[in-house]
Amino acid sequence: MSPIVRRLCQLSILLILxxxxxxxxxxxxxxGDIAQQQADLIVVSTVLMLLIIxxxxxxxxxxxxxxxHSNTKAKYDPEWHHSTRLEVVIWSAPLAIIIALGxxxxxxxxxxxxxxxxxxxxxxxxxxxxxxxxEVEVVALDxxxxxxxxxxxxxxxxxxxxxxxxxxxxxxxxSSVMNSFYIPALAGMIxxxxxxxxxxxxxINKEGVFDGLSSNYSGPGFSHMRFKFHSLNxxxxxxxxxxxxxxxxxxxxxxxxxxxxxSEKEPVRYYATVEDGLYRAILNxxxxxGKMCMDEMMHIDMMGGAxxxxxxxxxxxxxxxxxIDINLRGHGEEHSAVEPAAGSQSxxxxxxxxxxxxxxxxQGTDMAKGDASEAPKTN
Length: 379
Description:
Shape: elongated
Largest sheet: 7 strands, mixed
Number of helices: 9
Order of helices and strands: HHHEEEEEEEEEEEEHEHEHHHH
């Protein structure tokens, strides 16, 4: 290959690189304080690691050039094998960087814990005394997001809003499979798991419309499992709530069970009223009428079990939300019941006590309160 052709190939690669890179740098330029602290952590960690990487790359090229075969002026010492001075430099610099990274990671892990309530609005402002956080209950469905606003008695699908500079407390769960709730401009991602509740504390500092998405693959509708997050001033947020109440319908058990069924590219929906206790029923896997809630089941465990009469609870403990069979059923269809694996014991024949203890070990909750357990958390 001629030098001209080789140079043209190199230039063409450089021209292609900008089109291969992502254009949206929202992760590194977010609008929420928590996400901004996470972005700063990424920058600091990267710079600290580059303090070692850049000199190593430079010295690698320098040694190859300086000790080339044609450079007769380079010192040649085949008997050299050790230098205490070089050993000190080579090991002390990385050790110092590792210690610094370890300290930063330890501090940020506790400071940016998603379960930890906020202590500031941004780097220059603390939270005013008496400020009440906005509570939002999030449910990951197949394949859409359901948001409850218990303070206002409304709910929405695939759209949420919050006032600027007001702390937000998210309570997050899932109706069927594991998922992950993520608004890059607001804060890091957090898992959503059925029968469990995770939490996220965050605040948005700028007005705008931001993207929210599912960051954990959950089936054929995963790619379209997105929503819009509206950051509004106080008047704008009050107007948004009024719009939901004006244009919304009622969300009761029947409406929820229809909404829960798998569907793709679900449009935005508003619910002006929400049945009392619906989120608790979803969290405890008992939205279907007649089913025993998990916190009730765990209370029975805490009291020592139901004894011989526990067989009466067997039907109430059956979970009908079977897995989605993509290969056999196609998109959006589901089994009516979970089929047992070959050679395994059917749920129908399992004693109620065994089912109770099996789910109890999965929950690991505070039995005195009867709350569903909190799932693993992540930023």
